[in-house]
Design brief:
Largest sheet: 9 strands, mixed
Low-confidence stretches: none
Order of helices and strands: HHEEEEEHEEHEHEEHEEEH
Strand content: 15-25%
Shape: elongated
Helix content: 10-25%
Number of domains: 3
Length: 239
């Protein structure tokens, strides 16, 4: 990869600014000054320094966000704020994207990365990656609903869902539940409850595969995945 592209990708400035760094003799590769912006380097093997400071290269970024309501799960939108708009400039450099979608009014766990292969494996219908949601329902949720969800319900368009694991946390005029599903149809959780005559009034995603929402993250906050979280995702995807 060209040295100017490596440094620009890592946030050391625009291509123009990086070329100035090179021209000034600020950049060394394996302890040799490099002034040619077209010089090719292997950022994973070569020792790159700027003014004596070692450049840490990485190709991918993995972020966990507690998605707030009112923000859409997209990279760009002409009308609404997106989850990418919430990222710091140092993370935007990697050109990350949300893995899957949460509805505009839904909160909770969202994985944001630029690792397309990982995203594909987590979203592939063939993988049946489980996703768990917490929801508040506007009516009493019963054992009959648990049984119906376990068998799969028929959505408004005639689609028969795969079995869902419904756990009633609190039942009454408003019920609290957790639901685990292994597919991701449009508005699926809401439509599954509509299929049994009930309405979701609050929805939050708690987990996706082995990745669970960090409850210390405020709405709109995000952080990088820990080594353990990333390893669990990488191991999970090949099962």
């Amino acid at each position: 990869m060209r040295i100017d592209k490596v440094l620009a990708n890592l946030g050391y400035g625009s291509r123009k600014e990086v070329k100035k760094l090179l021209k000034d003799g600020s950049v060394t590769v394996n302890d040799e000054k490099i002034k040619d912006a077209k010089q090719h380097v292997d950022p994973e093997k070569d020792l790159i320094r700027i003014n004596g400071e070692t450049v840490e290269y990485r190709e991918f970024i993995y972020l966990m966000m507690n998605k707030p309501p009112g923000v859409i799960s997209a990279t760009e939108d002409n009308r609404d704020e997106t989850v990418i708009d919430l990222l710091e400039a140092e993370d935007l450099i990697f050109e990350p994207f949300p893995v899957g979608r949460l509805d505009k009014d839904t909160e909770g766990l969202l994985l944001i990365t630029n690792d397309g292969q990982l995203a594909h494996r987590l979203l592939s219908p063939k993988k049946h990656v489980p996703k768990t949601y917490f929801a508040v329902i506007d009516q009493e949720v019963t054992e009959e609903d648990v049984t119906a969800f376990r068998k799969g319900v028929i959505l408004d368009d005639g689609y028969a869902t795969k079995p869902g694991e419904l756990n009633i946390l609190k039942s009454g005029e408003r019920s609290d539940i957790e639901l685990t599903i292994t597919e991701g149809k449009f508005h699926q959780v809401k439509r599954m409850f509509e299929a049994v005559g009930k309405k979701v009034v609050y929805l939050q995603r708690l987990s996706m595969g082995p990745l669970r929402l960090d409850e210390t993250l405020e709405l709109g906050e995000y952080r990088e995945l820990t080594e353990e979280e990333l390893q669990s995702l990488m191991e999970y995807e090949v099962k």
